[in-house]
Write a structure and sequence with these properties.
transmembrane helix, mainly alpha, membrane, transmembrane, 11 helices
Length: 233
């Protein structure tokens, strides 16, 4: 299992998985949640949704405000070296949760928000798990053959297939006006994004690794001290 985790990320996502976090990561999170909160507020203020949808939107405001505050908190603690590891978790988790909040917001605009949000959440969870299981199988097969070509060749097939199906669902909605196909299409897009976002998880790991003591620096320091003592004598 350890080898699977070490070789989990495909070549396509390796550059992203090694990208360090920065203040921009938190600024993007703050702006994203502010934009989503604005859409929620405008939907409530417009009064076009039904009573159930308005209540659902009203509840959605509170976690969005919390996420804005959390990202602001992460922005400040990221400047403190010892707290960067916690800030990295905040930024990554914020990105994952943003996709789920987007889903809840979109379902609020439907005729039956509670039903679609629950069914959609189940579809998203199952879709993500299937994607991860398939990828683990690809990595395992690649390790047995001592070559990562299988992982890199077929690693994107699931995400690409899900994306194509989602676009077909949205296209069918545009000609049939059947709401369910739009929601299925959006849910599948979120599945594809979540699977892709999983490959960014290694960005957190460097912040949690313990730094090895710098032996060269300590030897140099001791030598300097000895020279100073010699001069003083």
């Amino acid at each position: 299992m350890k080898k699977i985790l070490e070789n989990f990320v495909t070549n396509r996502y390796k550059r992203v998985s090694r990208k360090p976090y920065s203040a921009i990561s938190f600024s993007t999170g703050i702006l994203g949640y502010l934009a989503l909160f604005s859409f929620v507020w405008l939907s409530i203020w417009g009064g076009g949704a039904g009573e159930i949808s308005n209540n659902f939107l009203g509840l959605l405001r509170y976690p969005l405000v919390f996420m804005i505050i959390l990202n602001i908190f992460g922005y400040f603690i990221f400047r403190i070296a010892k707290l960067k590891k916690y800030a990295a978790i905040i930024s990554y988790s914020s990105g994952v949760l943003f996709l789920l909040f987007m889903w809840f917001f979109i379902t609020c605009l439907s005729d039956n928000p509670i039903k679609y949000s629950l069914y959609g959440s189940f579809l998203i969870s199952i879709g993500w798990m299937i994607g991860i299981i398939i990828h683990v199988m690809l990595v395992s097969t690649s390790l047995k053959k001592d070559s990562m070509k299988i992982r890199d060749k077929y690693g994107d097939y699931y995400v690409n297939a899900i994306s194509i199906i989602s676009l077909l669902c949205i296209f069918y909605f545009s000609i049939s006006d059947r709401e369910m196909f739009l929601l299925v299409g959006v849910a599948l897009i979120i599945v594809a994004l979540l699977v892709s976002l999983t490959f960014s998880f290694p960005r957190i790991l460097p912040y949690w690794r313990k730094e090895e003591p710098k032996k060269d620096a300590s030897v140099y320091g001791n030598t300097t001290k000895m020279m100073k003592r010699g001069k003083s004598k």
